[in-house]
Design a protein that fits this description.
The N terminus is likely disordered. The chain has a single domain, classed as TIM Barrel (Alpha-Beta Barrel), CATH 3.20.20.190. An 8-stranded parallel barrel has the order 1-2-5-6-7-10-13-14, surrounded by 6 helices. A two-stranded antiparallel ribbon has the order 8-9. It has 12 helices and 14 strands. Helices cover 35% and strands 17% of the residues. It is α/β, with parallel strands linked by helices and 314 residues long. The longest helix is centred in the N-terminal third of the chain and has 16 residues. Bound molecules: SN-glycerol-3-phosphate and calcium ion (CA). The site of calcium ion (CA) has 3 residues, from strand 2.
Length: 314
Amino acid sequence: MSTLRPALSSMLALLGSTTLLPSMAAQADALEQQRQDLQNFQVIAHRGASGYAPEHTWYAYDKALAMGADYLELDIHMSADGRLVAIHDTTLERTTDGHGSVKEHSLDELKALDAGSWFNQAHPEYADDAYADAKLLTLDDVIDRYGQDVRYYIETKSPKDYPELQDALVSKLEAEDLVQSGAVVVQSFSQASLQEIHDLNPDIPLIQLLWYSPGEDGKTLEEWTGVTPSPANITDADFQAIADYADGVGPNYLYEGEPVIDARFIEQAHANDLLVHVYTINDKDRMRRLLDWGVDGLFTNFPDRLKDVLAEAE
Ligand code: G3P
Ligand code: CA
């Protein structure tokens, strides 16, 4: 991520102008500060502190921020009435008492669901009666609560289901001044989604997610949507094609407990000017190994564990 995006470059060029408004200069500084911060290691709270509280609820987000996470990770779907909703799955069954697809329900219907009781059953060691009142949240809710005081790491989920998602998301981020204030990263497994966002606003830092798993032969790793070949066969040209629109890559580390990337993958991505943010790491020994390999950030359900590991390394 060594190059400044065109729109930011234009804004910085204006810094020499005597007619530049002070607020514009402050915004350019804020976006540049975010880009500098991204060169340092980032703690990304995966669905909030979702190891300790029901994912994508106030409980998980507030805990993540209290633990000192650098970014709140949000997975975004759309309701039937076009609202941006923070939820991971396409369907409601796993994390609510609802049924069917998110996109088949209005926001009012989604807001009526219990989004926390499932956690108490799945994770009795961290259960809390209060979680039974947890509700699904919209992106509006989250931004209304935290504003520009927090950085958001937003994933566009299932963009083929919601062709209008990119436009709605960028419009919201711009309306809330979250791009120029350096408060947002957008990530996706969909190359098309990221390219559309890049076209809409080239200042938004983007991360291309990658999912490696064995192909039909049960051995050779394949990337889910074909964004890259197997990690063993990635060329600089493959990484450069991603660097045309994105600032980094977000690969899985493990498939069924076995590593799918190694130190060489990270080195090669860096050589091609790409950040590497690896998901989803909850084990301290794995965090230490990936830190040794030079990753630029980790997604974790347990931000406090990652902060502990970082403190050890200081
Ligand atoms: O966004 C990084 C990681 O969260 C991708 O996997 O399935 O947890 O959204 P998933
Ligand atoms: Ca995600």
